[in-house]
Amino acid sequence: MAFNYLIPMLEVENMDETIEFYENILDFVCVKRSQNAWSLMQKDEVAIMFSDRFFKEEHPNTFMTGSLYIYSDNVDVLWQILKNKVNIAYPLDNFEPGKREFAIFDNNGYRIQFGQDLNTN
Fold it and tell me: Where is the signal peptide (predicted)?
């Protein structure tokens, strides 16, 4: 039995605002949507699903203790495009072991890291 792929599903307060952020800021496309119940966003090989809130009474705010890490083929260009349009979690920098990356917060407060491997040649 094989696992084929992973698509994270994140709860959001406002589906329209989330779709607008991912389409207009991050250049994703909404490929499927079921009213406000869920949506599937995709850019190149990266897919993320969003859903309406399941446990809003128990957890009044959306949260995730981790982040989404998206590999890019040119993180420097992506940084230039996004740095003045989004809430920055941390700026572009080099990290061990051999990563160049930065992180932003989306409109829901979820942290998204963008990075690429540094050439070690």
Answer: none
Task: Please choose, from the candidates 5, 4, 8, the residue with its C-alpha nearest in 3D space to the C-alpha of residue 38.
Answer: 8
Helix ranges restricted to H, 12-121: 15-24, 75-82
Q: Residue 57: which residues within 8 A CB-CB, separation 6 or more? A: none
Amino acid type, 114: F
Question: Nearest to residue 52, comparing CAs of 67, 62, 43, 42?
Answer: 62
Give residue 73's pLDDT. 93
Q: Is residue 108 a contact partner of residue 62, using CB atoms and an 8 Å limit?
A: yes
**pTM listed for this prediction:** 0.90
